[in-house]
Amino acid sequence: MKKSLEGVWAVLIIFTIFAYLLGELKLVNTLLVDILLITTFIKGQLVIDYFMGLKNVQLRYSIIPTLWLSIVIFSIALAYYLPITIK
Amino acid sequence: MNKTSSIKELYPPGDFTIWIVIYVELITFGLMFVGYAFSRRADIALFNNSQLLLNQTAGFIDTLILITSSYFIVKAVNSVKNARGEMIQSANILASKWLLAAILFGVIFLVNKLLEFSAIFSQGIGLSTNTFFMFYLLLTMFHFMHVALGTVVLLNIRQRTKRDGYSADDSRGIETGGVYWHLVDLLWIVLFVLVYIIR
């Protein structure tokens, strides 16, 4: 499906407002960290695909920022969810 | 739907060198993001309490500014990418307007950030206050420098649009500046959620 630039911008703004409201209303808990990280991944991927213009570029170039985003978001999730050992 | 639209481009937009810069920047910031997340595990209470001293609204406004300025840049690039012959002049005028809007947003971001830094420093907080603020200041100041550089790059690109410098045959310069600005946007999107929101 072809996304309009304005549609992409609107999704980015809506996800940002969602994140801000969760933070401002102190609603961020373990489950919502998941959702926040997923929405951050979607936002990042939209920027990569539609703003950076990598959507229609050969995979060997477009995959690098996507891999970066996936590794960073996954590592952050790991840091939040791995059990902490108290010595 | 046009059949050619499904054919993948051979190379990413802009000069290839900028992509090397982008990959290096991604690795650098990526390491700092992951470093922040794992350092937090050593003292969660300290990170959560320190985070309360940040101005989330300022971070939120910064995010809206960068996303919207990125949108303006795409509009500027699209204006000149298909401009040929008589269309070149009007396309460059239009691109110049979009670029001006993006530059203004960039400046607003920088001013907003300076106010935020000033509020933090006035509380006696610095790099050595604690691990959270070390990461916060390093990440946001490093990012601030990227926005400042990006704004200067956009100013230069805008100067060239005033000389009708871009067209369908020569849009690499504006694309290069554009992808750099989008990198700055992408980094901030992760930074905002990681440092200002999740706890």
Write the layout of secondary structure elements.
The complex is a heterodimer of chains A (87) and B (199).
Chain A: H1 5-24, H2 30-51, H3 59-81
Chain B: H1 16-40, H2 44-51, H3 56-81, H4 87-122, H5 131-161, H6 172-197
Describe this protein's structure:
The complex is a heterodimer of chains A (87) and B (199). With 87 residues, chain A is an all-alpha fold. Chain A has one domain (5-81). In chain A, 75% of the residues lie in helices and 0% in strands. The longest helix of chain A is centred in the last third of the chain and has 23 residues, at 59-81. Chain A starts with a helix and ends in a 6-residue tail after the last helix. The mean pLDDT of chain A is 91. With 199 residues, chain B is mainly alpha-helical. Chain B has a single domain (44-197), classed as Four Helix Bundle (Hemerythrin (Met), subunit A). Chain B has helices spanning 16-40, 44-51, 56-81, 87-122, 131-161, 172-197. Chain B is elongated and about 60 Å long. The termini of chain B are far apart. In chain B, 43% of the residues are buried.
The helix-and-strand class of chain B reads: mainly alpha
| Average pLDDT, all residues of chain B | 94
What is the C-level CATH assignment of chain B? Mainly Alpha
Task: Name the pair of protein chains with the most residues at their interface, and give those residue counts.
Answer: A-B, 47 and 51 residues
Largest sheet of chain A, in brief, is:
none
The termini of chain B sit apart by 45 Å
Proportion in helices of chain A:
over 70%
Poorly predicted runs of chain A are none
User: CATH superfamily name of chain B?
Assistant: Cytochrome c oxidase, subunit III, four-helix bundle
Order of helices and strands of chain B: HHHHHH
